[in-house]
Amino acid sequence: MNDFDLAHMSWFEIRDSLNLIIYVGRKFNLVV
């Protein structure tokens, strides 16, 4: 991944990734 790709993987994709991790964590009772 070069800098151009990294620049376009901005806050929106990072936020969606975090939301997905939290959602899966709650489903498996890993995140309270």
Short key terms for the protein model shown above:
mainly alpha, 2 helices, 0% strand
The shape, in one word, is rod-shaped
What is the makeup of the main sheet? none
From the N-terminal CA to the C-terminal CA, the straight-line distance is: 33 Å
Mean pLDDT across every amino acid position? 77
Secondary-structure map:
Elements: H1 3-8, H2 11-27
Description:
- About 70% of the residues lie in helices and about 0% in strands.
- It contains two helices and no strands.
- It is rod-shaped and about 35 Å long.
Short description, anyone?
By secondary structure, this protein is mainly alpha-helical. Helices cover 72% and strands 0% of the residues.
